[in-house]
Amino acid sequence: MRHSTASAAEQPVVPGFHPDPTICRVGSDYYLAHSSFEYFPGAPIFHSRDLTNWTQIGNILDRRSQFRRGDGRPSGGIYGSTLRFHDGRFWFATTNVGDAGAGQTIVTAADPAGPWSEPVFVPEAIGIDPDLCWDEDGECYLTWKGTVFDGEGDGIFQARLDTGTGRFKGDPYPVWQGIGLAASEAPHLYRIGGRWYLILAEGGTERGHTVTIARGDSPQGPFEPCPDNPVFSHRSTAHPVQNTGHADLVETADGSWAAVYLAVRPKGFTPQFHVLGRETFLAGVDWVEGWPVFDEDRYTVAPIETAFTDDFGSAELDLRWVVPGGEPEAVAVHVQGGGLKLRDLPDGSPGLLCARVKDFAWAAEAEFAGSGRLRLLIDDRHWYEVVFEDGRVRAEAGIGDIRHELASQECSAETAVLRIEAAAPETEGVFPTGIGPDTVVLSFIGDDGSLCELGRLDGRYLSTEVATGFTGRMIAAGSAGERALVRRVTYEPR
Length: 494
Known about the structure:
Blueprint: E1 6-7, E2 22-26, E3 29-33, E4 39-40, E5 42-48, E6 55-61, E7 78-86, E8 89-96, E9 104-109, E10 120-122, E11 127-134, E12 140-148, E13 153-162, E14 167-168, E15 173-174, E16 185-192, E17 195-202, E18 210-216, E19 224-225, E20 232-233, E21 242-251, E22 257-264, E23 279-288, E24 291-295, E25 300-301, E26 308-310, E27 323-324, H1 328-331, E28 332-334, E29 340-342, E30 352-356, E31 362-370, E32 372-379, E33 382-389, E34 392-399, E35 402-410, E36 415-423, E37 427-428, E38 433-434, E39 439-445, E40 451-458, H2 464-467, E41 474-478, E42 484-493
Antiparallel strand pairs: 1-25, 2-3, 3-5, 4-27, 5-6, 7-8, 8-9, 9-10, 11-12, 12-13, 13-14, 13-15, 16-17, 17-18, 18-19, 18-20, 21-22, 22-23, 23-24, 26-42, 28-29, 29-42, 30-41, 31-36, 31-42, 32-33, 32-41, 33-34, 34-35, 36-39, 37-38, 39-40
């Protein structure tokens, strides 16, 4: 069931796997970008005029020269980033952990929809989560979560940067390291009201996630921690939204302030399970005695349209489609008359064209000719799927090293419609209690037009708490041999 207008404290402004939000404003226009890990094209970017309604306008890293593939492993690729507007251009700084030796990656653009420039690499900055900030003289400061390999440990580092060459103008130095919680990271530096503020994420991106902040008279510090740190967290509460952190501040067009942050919506029995990945939420911000105070209920979010039907009639793929560890052109080829021919990857694994799942209850269908598969995955080792091949349709599951066929049925037609649905979880136990976050139903539409169910599986095995990592569920149309042609994919929330 679709939600009605709700507080932004409980409904994300960008649902589904859209973590590590970073935001900037130009006039009355807001731009928001995210990490994307192994999926290519990378770093989706959105536009809004009101902070609550967002439309994707591109993927910042849409060429392999900008986002080197590396080993393509799950939860590798593009990590936390910073999006800023300076001196008439948009700047995006990020980390590609699959190309760790290159340090940080910086691209720029005159138009945030692209094209974005070829990258400038910062090889002296080894680590993650880079931030760019300029002082009144135009000096650029790179602040990042750094790693030192000579035994001195890691922490939050900063250096003055030549943005044209990617070289430091002096030795890097440590700045404020936070309040002592685990995993201090995601620094963002701001000049606000004549002071310099350094905001961090601490506690890890799990249930202990927090936002902390300090201020000083110089971008280098020394920094005075806020006496009320952490300034924002849902840790150890019963709030339905958890793992809140990794915030980025923005001054709004009317002079007030807001923050975007990541969080998850866990479901099911303890320890609960989140399946949509880390999503982007919005809060208002007030300044009290020179410190930010988060107002979670300032904004309301109207129902977001997540349904789509794609018959692949356009010469260009919709921005929703991405590929894990590979490239769309290696997986899918447009054919005359409509549809996509799907191809296996060079290693023999199925080519998967993926879109983010954005709802708790939903149904997806894919119409294939010849052969094909419809897969629900959270990574390459945790997935459920329906496969049409050699005159049969079968339901399969992959959970870690386990591969299991649930059932199969004859399908003699040349085409088949494969279907996956996320439904309410089965209940069990004394209370009774819904153990998992949902039940995943695997089925297909038979030759006579009837729905043929092949199996039901507990959704918890496609959750981050089981699979680990930093991504969320994806629905994928994939190859199954040489004859796979997908004619249509439909996704509908319930």
